[in-house]
Amino acid sequence: MGYTSNEFNKQQTDSAAVISSGKEILLQAFNWESHKHDWWRNLERKVPDMAKSGFTSAWLPPPSNSLAPEGYLPQNLYSLNSSYGSEHLLKALLNKMKQYKVRAMADIVINHRVGTTQGHGGKYNRYDGIPLSWDERAVTSCTGGLGNKSTGDNFHGFPNIDHTQQFVRKDIINWLRWLRNSIGFQDFRFDFVRGYSAKYVKEYIENTKPIFSVGEYWDSCNYRGHYLEYNQ
Description:
This protein is α/β, with parallel strands linked by helices. The protein has six helices and seven strands, in the order αβααβαβαβαβββ.
């Protein structure tokens, strides 16, 4: 899974991806129920309206295979057949967005990753049989792995990725470049950036060069038990 430098440079200089006005209007182009509605196909029909309304970028839900249909419990990052639709439909959507000069923002969920097989301590902290076939060293010691201590907050209940590992960062950078160059995403939204040090976000951005990036970071939220309160 990779990219060529010529393809990457072409993506970088594509006039449809260049911010020229300095004014950005970002659309959240999904909600928590969107996976129930043939979303990639549904959204493709709305692209002309996005452009007409003045949106410069549309934040799309996580594109990868996920244990949860909303996309926030990823497992096989290179599999883009998700509850939102097939990889073919996703690429059709991104091509349509490019035609209308609305940049596609990928939701990058790299704080945690669901394992495929049991490893150290009987936990599902290995990724055998799929691309990025990491072992327990890729999982923080705080969440059942053999990696280092987390550099941020823990996302409880699932293996948290150890971004201090060079092999992990190399694989993530290659995956992000693949999303940028081969798939057609132009912007990145980093999920749960409280979970790992900001220096790693900086490294990922500098090595993959998205046109525009944002991160999900909150100071405090109200919960009812384990559930997040609405309307905050």
